[in-house]
């Protein structure tokens, strides 16, 4: 069974690495429509298309262990951002 969950949302490719997720739930707090914790306390998608693009990016970037990766239409990685980009 793959440990990756992947969706294309607002033209963004969003991937949860379920093996990395430690279930802190920061992504869920930032975008509860988009993510939830399953019975193993690992993040899964709910309805990420219901979350505005900016907030979705913010929610993915909130992950403390970089378990969520986001690429744009051109295949450029947007999340995780370089450490110097965030405060
Ligand atoms: S923020 Fe990261 S570690 Fe926390 S639940 Fe979401 S994917 Fe998992």
In short:
It is built from 2 helices and 6 strands, in the order ββαββαββ. The protein has 87 residues and is α+β, with helices and mostly antiparallel strands.
What topology emerges from the helices and strands here?
Blueprint: E1 4-9, E2 12-17, H1 26-30, E3 35-37, E4 43-45, H2 53-61, E5 68-71, E6 77-79
Antiparallel strand pairs: 1-2, 2-5, 3-4, 5-6
The structure holds iron/sulfur cluster.
Describe the structure.
- There is one protein chain.
- 16% of the residues lie in helices and 29% in strands.
- With 87 residues, the chain is of the alpha+beta class.
- The longest helix has 9 residues, at 53-61.
- It has a single domain, classed as Alpha-Beta Plaits (2-Layer Sandwich), CATH 3.30.70.20.
- The strands form two sheets. Strands 1-2-5-6 form a four-stranded antiparallel β-sheet, covered by helices on one side.
- The chain binds iron/sulfur cluster (SF4).
- Residues 16, 21-28, 43, 62-63, 65, 67-68 line the site of iron/sulfur cluster (SF4).
Features:
single chain; 87 residues; alpha+beta; Alpha-Beta Plaits; 4-stranded antiparallel β-sheet; 2 helices; binds iron/sulfur cluster
